[in-house]
Automatic annotation (TrEMBL):
InterPro entries: Aminotrans_V_dom, Aminotrans_V_PyrdxlP_BS, PyrdxlP-dep_Trfase, PyrdxlP-dep_Trfase_major, PyrdxlP-dep_Trfase_small, SP_NH2Trfase/AEP_transaminase. Keywords: Aminotransferase, Pyridoxal phosphate, Transferase. This is Alanine--glyoxylate aminotransferase family protein. Belongs to the class-V pyridoxal-phosphate-dependent aminotransferase family. Residues 33-338 form the Aminotransferase class V domain. The keyword Transferase applies. It comes from Colwellia asteriadis. It holds the Pfam family Aminotran_5. Its cofactor is pyridoxal 5'-phosphate. GO terms for molecular function: transaminase activity.
Amino acid sequence: MSISSFFPPQRTLMGPGPSDVNPRVLSALARPTVGHLDPTFIGMMDEVKTLIQYAFQTNNTYTMAISAPGSAGMEACFVNLLTPNDTVVVCKNGVFGARMVENVTRIGAKAIVIEGEWGRAVNPQQLEDTLKQNPQASVVAFVHAETSTGALSDAQALCSIAKQYDCLTIVDAVTSLAGVELRVDDWGIDAVYSGSQKCLSCVPGLSPISFSEQAAELIKKRNAPVQSWFLDQSLVMDYWSGQGKRSYHHTAPVNSLYALHESLVILQNEGLEQSWQRHRTMHNKLAGGLEQLGINFIVPKEERLPQLNAVYIPEGVDDAAVRHTLLNDYNLEIGAGLGAFAGKAWRIGLMGYAARNENVTLCLAALKNTLPA
Ligand SMILES: *Cc1c(COP(=O)(O)O)cnc(C)c1O
């Protein structure tokens, strides 16, 4: 048996992630591997931390990248902050909110679930009413940018309500980071996680994460150890804390961190607000073209994510056949519907490096040629 090297096709990735990776990031990945405790690498990790702080708009000391995808960032927030005695209000308006509930219940904590409408932002009034009725709740969790539905929630308003009721906030910023406004410190977010493969346009497999001083204190003061050894942030924090006393916890994914470093340098060079604006501009272009094709958005205009365009599949159109043609004739990937939207929706991503004029043009032309007139 002789298996040869794998050469993937060159696709244009306009789905829910991974997004198109900037060639600069791919070339960073191919640089020589050094030891994960090599002084030069430790210096680079410190820069990664500073760059993540910039992307999140936070001064939190406990800011780092988990060596695993966004789902591990989610789990890290929940397992570190919760104990079985806690009551958590989870605002659920899609697949990722449902995963938050799953995290809470697996810990043995109590989840009070606010069932939101699919394709809509979380309703702040519903959160306020729920907190009023449940004074025992100590944590509020929600997804800022619901990738399964394309809805953007008002994280600032939700955090401000949570704070009025003395709750810590856990926010999923996997798809929002670098794609829409996100201000961790100004908005009072206590624990936030993201992913490398969405609007950062890095390779999949890393999860930027940050804890407020209050959240970090809570983790340090825990009586029972976190049940996950790998995700126990009191151990990982030592690994990322620098000042020359870094000790072995696990072997960092050295080359993937070069890639994350490069993607964050690209973000810094562009400017965070410019990146938010670019996603908005490309979204407007795409939305205009989709409307001309008679394709309708699921989410009301003011609640739409620019980086994830959830649209109804036009009546009589074969979902799988269209996506098959886009992939095979145009090397273009768009996302299928997820959960309640399976078979009913397409999710067209404009994330990071994918949010470019040429991608919008390609996607609109490919859809126009593929859809029946
Ligand atoms: C993609 C995504 C995740 C999970 O990230 P992975 O890197 O796939 O593990 C979590 N939450 C949201 C909102 C996402 O879009």
